[in-house]
């Protein structure tokens, strides 16, 4: 037994499933989870001292790599002044200005502590603003674990094979309508069946919780048009894609303006942060300006804000996103060449520094139904072979992968070679 397995046994005694978030338990790939002791740059190190090149990046936040000096310095400086005040601070104001500068659709923004809080509140706000109850989401998209969003959801729910969670009252779930990602007809049909009832559409503009599926041409604009036609609020859940695919996120990359945007991950620089923002008239309905209530003891925490702000400042460097995109393309081209060499049916997807790997002979995977036709068993074997090669991928076939600015071409070459060995043994 290595130290990770020992710790997992010990963890199961007092932590449900031995983990504090389900996908970490490795149920999606079998075996026992790796426990990490430290991380630096593009690498994570387990408690037994093994080094892995990391493509999880703490599920997205680590776009600069682990332990980035600018973030570390900002956090240490903030800690000197106290951990939390529960009162307004200057750094929150700077953060709000920065978010509005990066995201042209965001006129006002409220900081929270997680992506879940951000999406949960954005939906409450959309309901309060429109006076309607129903929300429309897409099968296989994940927006955190608020009750009304755990319906046909992706990520850990797909990994566990329970796309809708027990514990949610049927009359709550009844307000959640689900459509097919990349299928505008399925959205129109729901609007036409109940034209005055749908408060909002919430969508991952690039779906990253059923592997990685970019939107087809016109899909996001089509959602914008349908929301305008039926007077519903369009929410882009950019918790994963926010500052990941471009400085201006999906909304600038695809040139579609949502009414509200939810953020998380990168905006906290590795600390627990989320945010939601958008049109000033909608945000004006939020307490204390308006009646829609939301609050948080640690919201806008000064240490978390300092970390997030330091991260966002790094993203302003000239050529940052081009370089990240180029590295990701290089990695995927290398992987595809290895798959061809070893005659493994595999396809990839990419948007900026975000990517997907699919075991399928399809050229492109565009929908939840197509994701479900991919070979999940092959992924499980592949995952463990990669782990042996010192490559840490997400322990599930339903998660996107992430490249960071800290990944060197030497590390990418090492990854390509390691993946080649894994594919050869598959
Ligand atoms: C697109 C998306 N929305 C919302 C969430 C929820 O964020 P959190 O895990 O910070 O609650 C996640 C990730 O978990 C996500 O990927
Ligand atoms: N897919 C999830 C977030 O993006 C993974 C994080 C988790 O569930 O622990």
How would you summarize what this structure contains?
By secondary structure, the chain is α/β, with parallel strands linked by helices.
Draw up the topology in text.
Blueprint: H1 3-14, E1 36-40, E2 43-46, E3 51-54, H2 69-80, H3 90-102, E4 108-112, H4 115-130, E5 134-138, H5 156-160, H6 170-173, E6 176-179, H7 184-193, E7 198-203, H8 219-230, E8 233-237, H9 249-253, E9 260-263, E10 274-278, H10 280-283, H11 302-314, H12 320-341, E11 347-351, E12 354-358, H13 368-371, H14 376-388, E13 391-392, E14 401-402, H15 409-425
Parallel strand pairs: 3-13, 5-6, 5-7, 7-8, 8-9
Antiparallel strand pairs: 1-2, 2-3, 4-10, 9-10, 11-12, 12-14
Helix pairs in contact: 2-11, 3-11, 7-8, 12-15
The chain binds pyridoxal-5'-phosphate (PLP) and the ligand N[C@H](C=O)CCC(=O)O.
CATH class of the largest domain: Alpha Beta
Helical/strand content category: alpha/beta
Query: Might you state the CATH topology name of the largest domain?
Result: Aspartate Aminotransferase, domain 2
Beta-strand level of the residues, as a percent range? Answer: 5-15%
The number of domains is: 2
How many DSSP H or I helices? 15
The hetero molecules present are:
pyridoxal-5'-phosphate, the ligand N[C@H](C=O)CCC(=O)O
The counted number of beta strands is 14
* Main sheet specs: 7 strands, mixed
Order of H and E elements: HEEEHHEHEHHEHEHEHEEHHHEEHHEEH
- CATH fourth-tier homologous superfamily of the largest domain: Type I PLP-dependent aspartate aminotransferase-like (Major domain)
Helix content: 25-40%
General shape: globular
Radius of gyration: 21 Å
Unreliable segments (pLDDT under 50, ≥5 consecutive)?
A: none
Strand order in the sheet with the most strands? 4-10-9-8-7-5-6
